[in-house]
Amino acid sequence: MADAKLSPAMEQYMRFKREHDDAILFFRMGDFYEMFFDDAREASRLLGLTLTSRNHGKTSGDIPLAGVPHHAMEGYVARLVGMGRKVAICEQVEDPKKAKGIVKRDVVEVVSPGTA
């Protein structure tokens, strides 16, 4: 994967994932929180979500993806935490309509069995 050319959004995702590698990363993309790679596989298995894939770059190939609507996020996070998993929530911290280039995002909360 290191040699693959990822989209700017996927490069941003990977940066946050490296910082929170022990958590399932909920990455806000518009009206959904998306999970990719192993997080998508695990969330799909644990939550019964559809596992799909998306191409996020010229040479990166298909990337496993699972997502949940933003308005349902809290319920899914609670279920994962109830199963003993840690979840990092990455929000869009600027209005996508006003963004020049990639939308700014930041991890705004980490929820774990010890903090829930």
What class, by secondary structure content? Answer: alpha+beta
- Which architecture would the CATH scheme give at its second level? 3-Layer(aba) Sandwich
| Mean pLDDT rating | 91
Q: Helix and strand succession?
A: HEEHEEHEE
CATH superfamily: DNA repair protein MutS, domain I
The biggest beta sheet reads: 6 strands, mixed
- Low-confidence segments, given as residue ranges, are none
Shape: globular
Alpha carbon gyration radius:
14 Å
Portion of residues in beta strands equals 25-35%
Look at the structure and give the CATH class.
Alpha Beta
C-alpha end-to-end distance:
34 Å
Number of helices: 3
Question: What's the SSE blueprint?
Answer:
Layout lengths: L7 H12 L4 E6 L2 E5 H11 L4 E4 L6 E8 L3 H10 L4 E6 L12 E7 L5
Parallel strand pairs: 1-5
Antiparallel strand pairs: 1-2, 2-4, 3-4, 5-6
